[in-house]
Design goal:
This protein is an alpha/beta fold and about 450 residues long. The chain has three domains: about 220 residues, FAD/NAD(P)-binding domain (3-Layer(bba) Sandwich); about 100 residues; about 80 residues, no CATH class. About 40% of the residues lie in helices and about 20% in strands. It contains 15 helices and 19 strands. The strands form four sheets. Strands 6-5-14-15-16-13-17 form a seven-stranded mixed beta sheet, with helices on both faces. It has a six-stranded mixed beta sheet with strand order 8-2-1-12-19-18, with helices on both faces. Helix 1 packs parallel to helix 9 and helix 13 packs across helix 15.
Length: about 450
């Protein structure tokens, strides 16, 4: 099946980058989006204005030849800055020297990709066009805006996100149902404004975390000197959205648990009570393809944001799809089943890893055993470069997510054994202690 045109539903970052890839291959590309053209409005749609762009996403952008323009406005985050209850701070680097993730504006990145796709590659975008129906047998998409339109297509890519209409329609015709797991936590966004001189009030090149067990506050830097803060609370129970329902309760929460953040967040009451908390969920679905329609990005594998891999995984989807198109000479009948078979296990794995990282961020980053584990893992990697900590496997490599998940489990077993060595906190960095660690490591890789 050799195709000459493709219709894309969803003009978010994944849909826009896919449009560039397809246009570069010579396809006639049309993109339909229910939202208003972001080039004409700066109004955000309620989602986080920050994304964490890392190796996998950058790799896909490089292959499209657009990474330099997008990285110009990115802020490197070299590690986590942990804020304890007493206002003290400790820095935990993400990886080796020179390794970092990038805080980027969701809206800015999306607008730039749309502008490149439209101006440089002739992609046609149609905004304020909501998909309402799809006829899989006759290849017709129905959209509604000012009027109802029936649009024929040769090939259709669904990049319409976690709440994908196309996925729901595909599941109906296939007699399947997506597995949606809603997290017991939600979030609200707050803002640390810039200083009067336009500078960042706290460390610029870090992702800030206030871990408090069952809940947490995080902050990512913006180019205007501000930080976007996200408060994650359970919906019910102690220190929950249900409990923090008054100005007094909100002030009590911040004074007790985030005392150093409170003076920085201006208008905390106004922002907190302006909107209802947003939900977080994981979506797994199968199949991803039906006739000439395929799901990609969040439409195929929505995940919670705690590994910062949602966009990166979607961009990686596109790169791998493009490589398969090259290998199989754009025979979509061959490519789509292989793409689904390759990516489905990795998509499932990163959704698991994202949930694990939520527990790590809110519960463990300030834990003594966790901090010791990170020190030992860093030392092991220095001496044995083939030993990659899980975070590095996920964030700074192209290793399949499923492989990283499996290796992460093996690392957990090894580190549990190492941390059970008597007096390991005192002896790990001594010749005797390190000899024991190396012996266990050697046994683990035999």
């Amino acid at each position: 099946m050799i195709k000459k045109s493709i219709l894309i539903v969803g003009a978010g970052p994944v849909g826009s980058l896919l449009a560039i890839y397809m246009a570069k291959r010579g396809y006639e590309v049309s993109v339909y989006e229910k939202r208003t053209d972001p080039r004409k409005t700066m109004v955000d749609d309620g989602r986080s204005i920050n994304l964490a762009l890392s190796h996998r996403g950058i790799h896909a952008l490089k292959k499209a030849g657009v990474e330099k323009l997008l990285l110009e406005s990115a802020i490197p985050m070299k590690g986590r800055m942990i804020h304890n209850l007493n206002g003290g701070q400790s820095f935990q680097p993400y990886g080796e020297k020179g390794q970092y993730i990038n805080s980027v504006s969701r809206g800015g990145l999306n607008r730039t990709l749309i502008e490149i796709a439209a101006s440089e590659f002739g992609v046609r975008f149609y905004f304020d066009k909501k998909c309402t129906e799809i006829d899989f047998e006759n290849n017709i998409l129905t959209v509604e805006g000012n009027s109802k339109e029936n649009i024929p297509y040769e090939l259709l890519a669904a990049t319409d996100g976690a709440f994908s209409i196309i996925r729901n329609k595909l599941n109906l015709v296939c007699g399947k149902e997506a597995e949606t797991n809603k997290l017991s936590h939600g979030y609200k966004e707050l803002t640390i404004p810039p200083s009067k001189s336009g500078n960042h009030l706290i460390e610029k090149n870090a992702l800030h975390i206030w871990p408090r067990g069952s809940f947490m506050l995080i902050a990512l830097p913006n180019t205007d000197g501000s930080f976007t803060c996200t408060l994650f609370l359970p919906f019910e129970g102690e220190n929950s959205f249900a409990e923090v329902n008054s100005k007094e309760a909100l002030m009590g929460l911040f004074k007790n648990y985030f005392p150093d953040a409170l003076p920085l967040i201006k208008g905390v009451e106004e922002e907190y009570f302006a909107l209802e908390p947003s939900f977080l969920s994981t979506v797994k679905t199968y199949p991803w393809i039906h006739n000439n329609v395929f799901l990609i990005g969040d439409a195929a594998h929505a995940m919670v944001p705690f590994y910062g891999q949602g966009m990166n995984a979607g961009f990686e989807d596109i790169r791998i799809l493009d490589e398969l198109l090259e290998e199989y000479k754009e025979n979509w009948d061959e490519v789509l089943p292989i793409f689904q078979t390759q990516r489905k296990p990795n998509a499932d794995a990163i959704t698991v890893l994202a949930m694990q990282n939520f527990i790590e961020m809110r519960d463990l980053v300030d834990d003594d055993d966790f901090i010791l584990r990170k020190k030992i893992e860093f030392r092991l990697h220095e001496k044995y470069p083939t030993y990659l900590p899980l975070y590095s496997m996920v964030t700074f490599s192209d290793m399949p997510y499923s492989e990283a998940l499996q290796k992460g489990k093996e690392h957990d077993d090894l580190m549990k054994a190492i941390l059970s060595i008597p007096e390991i906190p005192l002896i790990w960095n001594t010749p005797i202690g390190w000899t024991k660690i190396e012996k266990m490591f050697a046994e683990s890789i035999q």
